[in-house]
Design brief:
Distance between the termini: 32 Å
Order of helices and strands: HHHEEEEEEEHEEEHHEEEEEHEHHHHHHH
Strand order of the largest sheet: 5-6-7-9-8
Helix content: 25-40%
Mean pLDDT: 75
Number of strands: 16
CATH architecture of one domain: Orthogonal Bundle
Structural class: alpha+beta
CATH superfamily of one domain: Transferase(Phosphotransferase) domain 1
Shape: globular
Low-confidence stretches: 1-33, 35-49, 65-137, 152-177, 353-365, 367-371, 552-563
Radius of gyration: 27 Å
Strand content: 5-15%
CATH class of one domain: Mainly Alpha
Length: 563
Amino acid sequence: MQHSSTSTHRSIKSSGVLKAKKNRGNIDKNNSTPTKSRTTSSSRTSTPVSTFGKKLNLWKKKRAAATSTVIDKKTDGLNSEGNSKARVMYPDVDHRTGRRSERTKPAPAPDRRYSSRNLERSISSSGNRKEARAVDYSESMYNQVVDGLKKMRSSSSDDHTVVTDGSTVVSEMTTDTSYAFHTFKVDKHKFTVDKRYSMLRTVGSGAYGVVISAKDFVGGNNVAIKMVPKAFNDEIDAKRILREIKLLKHFHHENIISIQDMMPPLARTLEDFRDVYIVTDLMETDLHRIIYSKQTLSIDHVQYFMYQMLRAVKYIHSANVLHRDLKPSNLLVNSNCDLKVCDFGLARGISPTHNEDLEDDGRNSVLLTEYVVTRWYRAPEIMLACHEYSKPIDLWSVGCIFAELLGRKPFLAGDDYIDQLTLITQKLGKLSERDMDFITSSKAKNFFRKLPNKEPVPLSRQFPRAPPVAIELLSNLLEIHPRKRINVTDALNHPFFASLHNADDEPVAHASFDFTFEDEKLNRVRLQELIWEEVGAFRPSCLPVPNRLNGTSGVHPQRLYHA
């Protein structure tokens, strides 16, 4: 993710070959052509057996005859029945701490994921080797934690329990649930997450934070966990995080990334809530990496990616939401060609009464800011100082991505907004005086009039390998005049998608998204309260939100935390 992006959890398959399932947009290795049927559920994605799984199975086989139990300190090595018979323990486990001894710990098998030959997977390789080594023992530790939680729930004590690996089990005094967490370092950041998640590797990092892939022992699948450290230091960034969380909870679509869990704040006061953790689907790579890889992309690949993208845009627009930052790096992809849209931090709402079939006279648009969307995918009406714009801006971005898929390079890579507008007129032609009616600024009109009036090269010559039907759709998506630009419904009905289009399987949102939470002044403390409430939807035990320091109580009434 760039700026606040969650894009984030992306990696490239070492083989570099997109593989697909039969009858689900599959790509046959011999003819590189996906079938005409479309994905129906992202949960069907097949994931290769991980190195962790192989090591874990080997470990279980070697220790099948042994039994492992943590010594109860209160009985000094005796079991709960008082039997003084010595327990069978692993010979390479420290009986005091439950950890494997460093002296007897076997060296890990070579892990091809971190081979120097695989540059795509060698991010922080030295740290990843250590992390992979630690994963083998994590499941047994997790089982110990679960056993500890059962004992806690059966007892009447409200005291906290310290697990043998140094993590703290937090006792929820008024509920029957407990939160067990563990802490580990990722790059320069300290991750503190639920024990149900065991880190696999680092996926990416940037100014927004860090994303890791993790094994979910409860769900049995792999997930992506994004940590945003010091999330409330910048109120604008915190507002984007809140907006994205709310949108992802509202959306339920197979071509949009889904939020699965959040970590409860480990803070004694509201003001101490700093780091935000978001658990989402784990995808293998993004469209940007696919475009600039050596992977062959046929017109059928392009068709399938475009169809899924437009399905997602139709759903988003039906909720009266503009994404405003569609670009290849915000389109996550799996090896079976499933595609999901992510990064809704810049999204905005529009009037629920908006009608795409009506002329855009200002009643169907919303006053919005100019500096949205990465410049190369920014619609001309945004750069021409038209602060009132609507759904066509997302369709322009889709058209730019379409051209990039066809040409394997950015179509409109301007250095600044002046260069961007110059490139648009050079490649698509200059508007007539009559077609400048959507430009409200007289200065912008004068600037546009002064641009070179050069006859553009036809799109069919710019993309000679693309079929005429694809060129026609591209031309409709890249109409400079926003009201002449094709809308998402007509785009899905275009003959280019004749083999994939099914109106009954292109769902719309159940309701419009409510952006009224942004009407109030959202300062830092208020943002902390709102995001804490969002966490409560996944972790009810962290509610109610604690009072502010200037309130009646600064400590959460239901939680005790111990360092």
